[in-house]
Amino acid sequence: MKSIKTRLIILAAILATVAVVAVAVFAYNRFRSDESSQITTVKVGVDSDSYNDIWDAVNAELTKNKSGIQVELVHMDGSQINAATANGELDLNAFQHHAFLDDQNESEGYDLTTYANTFIQPMNVYSDSIESLDDLKDGDSVVLPNNPTNMGRALKVLERAGVLKTNPDKGYLPTEEDVTDNPKHLVFNPVEYPQVPRLLPDNAVGIINTNVAIDAGLDPIEDSIYSVPVNPDDEYNLPWINIIAGRATDAKNPAYVKVVEAYGTESVKKVIEEKHAGQCIYVFSDEVNPNQPAQD
């Protein structure tokens, strides 16, 4: 039988071991807590899940470079994102093209600016009932987005297809009233842009941006019946380049600069070109620090 002294020695050793483990666990958790508290979160507003993998690649770059920064995507209705960016609820946003931002700045009085160009998405024509725009009949209806920039773009798509003509004085933002030649007497049905895919059965054709089509389960290549060829050098496409935008006063914020730099890396370009081929064309350029070299 072990003596009381021996038992006490064993008990003391066990308690000492437990104490050491407890201190080690506490120190590790404290380290993890301190490490976590050093991460700067940049909230980026988006209106679609279509390109989450691109932002996963951005976060991977930020982690690889030990930047201490991570992007958190905040999904919101597109009509609310610029307001949330202007009031500071969001840090950046990545859901719009130049034309939409310009219109919002003018109509809402925002002081938002382009931090970077990212890619161009085609705006395609879809249909549940016809296989070609040549099959349009007199008086057919067209469902299209009701916001000024995307309605204008949709009408210009039909113009490029030779279906109608618009007043050239209205540039890239014509409205229904600016259609000067409509030989098939098409009827336009403007709706909130997420509704366009759902209303295809009730209209001859619908016109919508690629990300909205993807979210609705449409394949931009297989399911569209017409698309304007995406040539980055074509002036027609310049207003439709998608962007990262933020407050003009914060354009030099170091965290935001690093997010833009991460977006411009080869690994992010690879995700866009390999996983989104046919959906968007990579045209990245840093508009805040234009001479910043791309990272590997």
Would you write up a description of this structure?
Keywords: Lipoprotein, Membrane, Palmitate, Signal. This is Lipoprotein. It is a lipid-anchor. By secondary structure, the protein is α/β, with parallel strands linked by helices. It has helices at 4-37, 52-64, 78-86, 98-108, 148-160, 210-215, 254-263, 266-275; strands spanning 40-46, 69-75, 92-93, 112-120, 123-126, 141-145, 165-166, 179-181, 187-191, 205-209, 224-227, 241-247, 281-286. It has a six-stranded mixed beta sheet with strand order 2-1-3-12-4-13. A five-stranded mixed beta sheet has the order 9-6-10-5-11. It has a two-stranded antiparallel ribbon with strand order 7-8. The chain starts with a helix and ends in a 10-residue tail after the last strand. The model is unreliable at 21-36 (pLDDT under 50).
User: How many domains?
Assistant: 2
Element string (H = helix, E = strand): HEHEHEHEEEHEEEEHEEHHE
Main CATH class of the largest domain? Alpha Beta
Uncertain residue segments: 21-36
Main sheet makeup: 6 strands, mixed
What's the N-to-C terminus distance? 69 Å
User: What overall form do the CA principal axes indicate?
Assistant: elongated
What portion of residues is helical? 25-40%
CATH homologous superfamily label of the largest domain: Periplasmic binding protein-like II
Strand neighbour order, sheet with most strands: 2-1-3-12-4-13
The count of β-strands is 13
CATH architecture designation of the largest domain: 3-Layer(aba) Sandwich
Estimated structural class:
alpha/beta
Number of separate helices: 8
